[in-house]
Specification:
Strand content: 5-15%
Shape: flat
Low-confidence stretches: 145-161, 406-410, 432-513, 552-562
């Protein structure tokens, strides 16, 4: 099959399926008009004397009333479908004057493909690109169509005044890819504007989007019983129509994609193969940057203002570590696609703010929400996170009645918060009269009664020691080969947390109510401490939400300077965060994170360690500029079995003094 033949067949299949969708709409209209047509026949028969008698009179009244009710219901459904606001992806719109080179490249690409150019270009914090129809009045006035837009392939000119779809580009692509690579990746996307402009396909898509939006409207929570009943009927009708259109709509989109892909084969086809490799790499780096680097900052009330610059650093580091990415770093000498923007810094800040709002919900979460630069990240995020967690750990120990000093004859000046206090409290005696009650069980010393042992078949998963020196709990070694497909989210879906079995890094995820399973894999004292930490975290989060509810979001530098900002009209602020990154942590994970934070604080205050930032693993502890080694398994030994031996040995080698007080916040 030739390219032209494949394109024509794809376009014909798409138009055929679009007509099938429209036939579903026509059948629904016919069903709604059928009672009215019968009523007209009965009324005309009575007026002409052809249908006399009381039976026909009763039938005329019954059918007429039914026809009126059906017409009213159909009109209500049609009104909701027409007025309901279709879903739109939250984006940052790029004005043409702020990126003339990018618009010129896209229009040249559209001219080469002989399709209409997109009406606008927008960025989204995702590793994908697509076309999005925003012609609904709720999305704002559409841009005026250009006079040079070519006719739609197949002989159909674009309707006068109709706007082409918006080209949505994943922001990591714009910063990581080179200009030629971006052009090759966008070619099949831009080619989709041709089939999208066909009247039948456009009408079918509007009908399906309207039904989908109407279902969302009907699913809204309502207190009035009458409104709930009406919405239930509306939702049932819309879902019935959607089921009738499902297969045809899917085949229509496949036809559109096939036609666009065939048309784009003539443009940068060889380069597109290499560019697709960069797409997979971008998925992996962007996902790790968000979950390991950005999320700890968001939870501290800070949002990194240069996420796209950070993803370049993360992907460069991934290229260095990953054997699958050999040779990719050499391409960095070519012109990056972000050079097509007049002010890439302001655009990066706007996308970074949108990312924080979508995945975390800021800046409404509190009055201290502010941007942070990458050079300030170790001190403003890593150090503050560790010291905040360490302070919380000691507050919970105070509430549990744990003494500040373990011995009466402790030297002066050691009554402050110390790591030794934590170690002494969690240490489980293995034998003798000092052993804690209820510790001996088949699961090993200190297993929580009724909990599953942390070893053996059927044991709950736990973080295993990593191969990377200095990897903190919840981080994974990236010295070996990394398969981008393991961490890449599905296309057109914002990034998801890593799927490599890692537990979250310190400060990554909120707490949730505890149960026996949640506290499994630790000692009795550890379970009690984990429960206290979870409860304390829940109280702090609730207090922050109450404080943020009455606090107006501060103006960002980009907004005050008149630069581009997130298109807030495209989503409801009350629903933020739309895409939370990670599920709640278990009690054992919370306890591990807080002990790790306390160890890091002691290392910084007594052994000269410093906080650091790893682009792929997030917060890291540095000794003389190198990451600390073997901390994760040592902490896990204390948490799971109550054995402080490995951790004490690790601290002795590095000169950490657990009996010395540390500085908290």
């Amino acid at each position: 099959m030739t390219g032209t033949g494949g394109e024509e067949m794809g376009a014909q299949a798409a138009r055929s399926r679009a007509l099938a969708v429209l036939r579903v709409r026509s059948r629904a209209l016919a069903v709604a008009l059928l009672p009215a047509a019968v009523a007209v026949v009965l009324l005309v028969g009575g007026a002409t004397g052809r249908l006399p008698g009381t039976g026909w009179d009763a039938a005329r009244w019954a059918v007429s009333v039914l026809a009126v009710l059906v017409l009213l219901a159909a009109a209500a459904v049609a009104l909701v479908v027409a007025r309901a606001r279709p879903a739109a992806t939250p984006t940052v719109t790029i004005a043409e004057e702020s990126a003339p080179d990018l618009y010129r490249m896209v229009r040249d690409l559209a001219d080469r493909l002989d399709v209409p150019a997109p009406s606008a270009i927008a960025l989204t914090p995702d590793c994908d690109s697509w076309l999005e129809d925003r012609t609904h009045p709720a999305h704002g006035p559409p841009p005026a169509p250009r006079r040079t837009d070519p006719a739609v392939p197949g002989g159909h000119a674009r309707p006068r005044g109709a706007a082409a779809p918006v080209l949505v580009i994943g922001s990591p692509f714009l910063w990581w890819m080179r200009v030629g690579e971006l052009r090759a990746v966008l070619a099949p996307v831009v080619a989709g504007t041709g089939p999208s402009a066909h009247p039948d396909i456009a009408a079918a898509r509007r009908f399906i989007r309207g039904l989908d939006a109407a279902v969302a409207v009907a699913s809204a929570d309502r207190r009035n019983p009458l409104s709930r009943a009406a919405c239930a009927g509306l939702a049932q009708v819309c879902r019935l129509l959607l089921r009738g259109c499902r297969v045809h709509a899917a085949q229509m989109e496949r036809g559109v994609a096939s036609a666009a892909a065939e048309r784009a084969q003539a443009v940068d086809y060889g380069l597109r193969i290499a560019a697709q490799e960069q797409v997979g790499l971008a998925y992996a780096g962007w996902d790790r940057l968000l979950t390991r680097v950005a999320l700890p900052a968001w939870r501290m009330g800070r949002w990194p203002s240069r996420l796209d610059v950070g993803v370049v650093a993360a992907l460069t580091e991934l290229s260095r570590r990953d054997r699958l990415a050999e040779g990719f770093a050499s391409r960095l000498g070519e012109r990056p696609a972000c050079d097509l923007l007049e002010e890439p810094g302001a655009m990066d800040e706007a996308v970074s703010l949108l990312t924080a709002r979508l995945f975390h919900g800021g800046p409404e979460t509190g009055p201290d929400w502010s941007p942070v630069d990458w050079d300030e990240y170790p001190e403003e995020v890593v150090d503050r996170t560790w010291r905040t967690d360490a302070a919380r750990l000691h507050r919970v120990l105070d509430t549990l009645g744990v003494r500040r000093t373990a011995e009466e004859d402790t030297a002066p000046g050691t009554e402050g918060p110390t790591l030794a206090r934590v170690l002494d409290h969690l240490t489980v005696p293995t034998d003798g009269p000092g052993a804690a009650p209820g510790m001996a069980s088949a699961g090993g010393p200190g297993t929580l009664p009724g909990a599953t042992p942390a070893v053996g078949p059927g044991a709950p998963p736990h973080t295993a020691p990593t191969d990377d020196p200095g990897t903190l709990p919840g981080t994974a070694s990236t010295d070996g080969p990394i398969d981008p497909s393991r961490t890449a989210p599905a296309p057109q879906t914002p990034p998801h947390p890593p799927t490599d079995g890692d537990t979250p890094a310190p400060g990554d995820t909120p707490a949730h109510p505890e149960d026996d399973d949640d506290l499994g894999g630790t000692t009795t004292r550890g379970a009690a401490l984990a429960a206290g930490l979870s409860a304390q975290l829940a109280r702090e989060e609730a207090a922050a939400q109450r404080a943020g509810a009455g606090t107006a979001a501060p103006a960002t530098p980009a907004a005050t300077a008149g630069a581009a900002g997130p298109d807030a009209a495209l989503w409801d602020d009350g629903a933020l965060p739309l895409l939370p990154l990670q599920p709640p942590r278990s009690g054992r994970e919370i306890l591990t994170a807080h002990i790790t934070a306390m160890v890091c604080c002691a290392a910084m205050d007594t052994a000269g360690a410093t906080p650091g930032l790893d682009w792929l693993d997030g917060p890291s502890l540095l000794f003389d500029g190198a990451r600390a080694a073997d901390l994760a398994p040592s902490v896990l030994s204390l948490v799971e079995t109550g054995d402080p031996g490995p951790l004490r040995h690790w601290m002795t080698e590095l000169g950490i003094r657990p009996e010395k007080p540390v500085r908290l916040v």
